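Question: I have long wanted to understand how a fold can be written as tokens. Here is the record:
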Amino acid sequence: MKPTVLTRRADFLAANRGLRVSRPGFVLLARSNEGAGLRFGITVTKRIGNAVVRNRMKRRFRALLRDILPVHGLADTDHVLIGREGGIERDFAMLQSELLAALGRAKDGKGDPPRTGSRKRGPPKR
């Protein structure tokens, strides 16, 4: 079965309340979607780099997910990959093995501990 793409912001916010598995190149969020099928989304923030770098990272993530999710993805689950700073330089085979390991942890229900709310948010930078 071919996974569908998450497009609505509400779906990304819901996935953020699910299981979180961190890897050096990305963070995987996984959350059950009550029968909506296998779905995925990709997020790469401006902190990672300019548009060229972000788009290259998104293309790599789409290729990863296209290869791995139909076989190893969790059924009826939303999968969201969040790009991290080291992700663009990482070898593609390394990213594949990290994604397989992250999906294995998510299948076992072994996520990373929740983030603390100690991050200070000041006024926006200009």
The chain has one domain: 4-107. The radius of gyration is 14 Å.
